[in-house]
Amino acid sequence: PVGLSASAFPAKLWRLLNSPRVRSLRWDSQAQGLLIDRPLFERELLRPCSARTGGGEGAGASPDSFKATRFGSFVRQLNLYGFQKVPGWVGAAAPGDAGGWLRFRNPNFRRDRPDLLLRIKRLTRANRQRLAAGLEVRSRPPSRLQQ
Fold first, then answer.
1. What would the pLDDT profile of 28-51 be if each residue is shown by its tens digit?
2. Contacts of 142 (CB under 8 A, 6+ apart)
């Protein structure tokens, strides 16, 4: 959507879920949450350590890979953007799958509503305080490198 950087975490995640090339991420059956095959995700989308230690940009890292090198760091990003793990849910993404998929949800993250991505804000300390006070949460202004 207009007003959202293509490199913003929610936009990148939404784009990857809709990519036919990505096998480690899928929409849940209601297209309102994401399913993650952790082992495949780690191989497919997390940036290898060599890509950030002297290998340079593109040294084995896809432009759609995440900056994180560990799955826990990726989950932390999900949490910072208001995604919540569906507790106790580890199951099959589709009939015939063996299971082992993790499920995360955010009310503003839906396959048919990319316009809602604008509502997903990173939960900084200041944003948490604004939410607690009932105020609107604003995005950070883009850095000069993003402009």
1. 988 989 999 999 999 998 866 544
2. 5
CA distances to 84, 110, 125 from 17, in Å? 17, 10, 28
Domain count, the chain: 1
Does 77 fall in a domain?
A: yes
What is the domain-level CATH number for residue 39?
A: 1.10.10.10
Q: Which residues in the chain show pLDDT less than 70?
A: 1, 47-65, 88-99, 127-128, 131, 136-147
Query: How many other β-carbons are positioned within 10 Å of the β-carbon of residue 48?
Result: 15
Q: Which helix (H) or strand (E) holds 47?
A: none
43 occurs within a structural domain? yes
- Domain range spanning residue 100? 9-47+66-133
How far the first Cα of the chain sits from its last, in Å, is 16
At 111-124, the pLDDT tens digits run 999 999 999 988 87
